Amino acid sequence: MSKHLPQIALLIESSRNYGRGVLRGIARYAHANGPWSFFAQERELHSGIPKWLQNWQGDGIIARIENRGMAAQLLKFHCPVVDVLGSFRFQGVPAFDTDAMAVAKMATNFFLKAGFKHFAFSGYQGIPFSDRRAAAFSKYLADTGKTMEEMPAVPRMGDASDIQALEQHGMMANQITARWLNTRPHPLAVLACNDVRAQQILNACRKHNIRVPEEVSVMGVDNDDVLCDLCDPPLTSIEPNTDLLGYEAAAVLAKMMAGEKVSAPFTQIPPLRLWERASTDVIALDDLAMVQAVRFIRNEVGSGIAVKDVLAHVRRSRTDMEQRFRRSLGTGIHAHIEQRRLERVCRLLQETEYHLDEVARRAGFTTAAHLCRLFKKNYHQTPTQFRKGARSVA
Question: In degrees rounded to 5, what are phi and psi of residue 85?
Answer without folding.
Answer: -105, -45
